[in-house]
Amino acid sequence: MIKLSPAQLPDLLPWFLGGPPGMTALAEHALAPGAGDWWADRAVAPRTVVVACAGHLLLRGDPTALPPLALAPFAAHHVQAPARFLPLLSSAFDLLVPWERMTYVHRVSVPSPRPLHGVTVRRLALGDETALAALGPESAWIQASWGSPSGLAASGHGWAAFAKDRVLAVACTYFRGTTYEDVACVTVPDHRRQRLALACVTALCQDIAARGHTPSWTCSRDNRPSRLAAWTAGFRLEHEHVHYLTGQPARHVAGLTV
User: What are the N-acetyltransferase domain coordinates in residue numbering (predicted)?
Assistant: First the structure.
């Protein structure tokens, strides 16, 4: 596949419009420099387009235009693609696990809970990257779509609950689109059930609405805590779909003897 240049991308964005809110926002978010990559089977008049961002992969177009080898770099990715791509994905990887997903849209205004004594909820800014990095590897996914802790801190699209210089909870726009902004949040284990994430999400949703956009929320069907958090924050179910977790490249794709 060929990595596309920024100048080529706006003309290809309509390939991904009309999908569920989270997926459409992912494609738009990946247009930003350093956020993700766009690929195609050829630079001019592509037949298949691939968008990769933060371990997520979108496929559109004609699956017969790609050999299985072209997808080998995308092991251990969450793939959203039309059903016609399943034979290609099954040939490219030794494992393909379906994962039911639920997408919510913010419908109900929720009052922000009062922070605990000694806790401040505010927008992330330059200088907060050290505190974000201190969250540790289990929470590093929260900044993946912005490329780094500094990318998230400088984005203007994150809110956090601080106790002095320590981050206790974070909510951010994970994928930013022109209509929807898909929201993600995380709380450090020893401060859960204190409504800190809810305070951050509420502030973030107000920000998103002020930009003229609509907050969305995407999670796994079996992630009950995330579904409950979405409902509590005023999100309501909009769409259900299936995406697939890829394994390692199949042995014949990797060039090994079967």
Answer: 119-258
Report the number of secondary-structure helices (H) and strands (E) in the chain: 6, 12
Distance CA(79)–CA(98), nearest Å, equals 9
Q: Does residue 82 fall inside a structural domain? A: yes
Question: Tens digit of pLDDT for each residue in 217-242?
Answer: 999 999 999 999 999 999 999 999 99
216 to each of 24, 142, 151, 154, how far by Cα in Å? Answer: 11, 16, 21, 22
User: Which residues span the domain enclosing 94?
Assistant: 2-100+243-249
Please state the φ and ψ torsions of residue 225, each to the nearest 5 degrees: -60, -40
Distance of CA 114 to the CA centre of its chain: 28
- Cα separation, 40 vs 9, in Å, equals 11
- Which amino acid is located at 82 in the chain? P
The reply to whether 234 and 110 lie within a common domain is yes
What pLDDT digit, counting tens, does each position of 195-220 carry? 999 999 999 999 999 999 999 999 99
**Residue ranges in the chain assigned as alpha helix (H):** 21-29, 86-92, 129-133, 149-155, 196-210, 224-232
The count of other CB atoms within 10 Å of the CB of residue 167 is 26
| Continuous H helices in 52-210 | 86-92, 129-133, 149-155, 196-210
* Residue 177 maps to a domain: yes
- Which pair of structure tokens corresponds to residue 123? 């927008």
**Three-class DSSP labels, 220-242:** ECCCHHHHHHHHHCCEEEEEEEE
The pTM for the full model equals 0.91
